[in-house]
Amino acid sequence: MSGVLATGVVIVLLLTAVPVLLVQVCRGEPIGRLVALETLGVVGTVVLLLMARAAGRSTYDDTALVLALLSFAGSLVFARYWGREL
Fold it and tell me: Per-domain residue ranges for the chain?
């Protein structure tokens, strides 16, 4: 398999987890929601990094870095909001 095809397969496999995680974020218990939110951030960051490598553009790595930072900040806000229930 070529590198780009293998990268595409990995991206598709990672994206299959997104609907399950979104359901958990919407309907789960608060701690499960937080874990799913963090996992979505990690999956999104990895997918963006893989897409940057497949496209051969290292400048796209910055987008993944911004997503990682925003995901972390979002989880802090979520934990603060649900802090009494966690």
Answer: 3-81
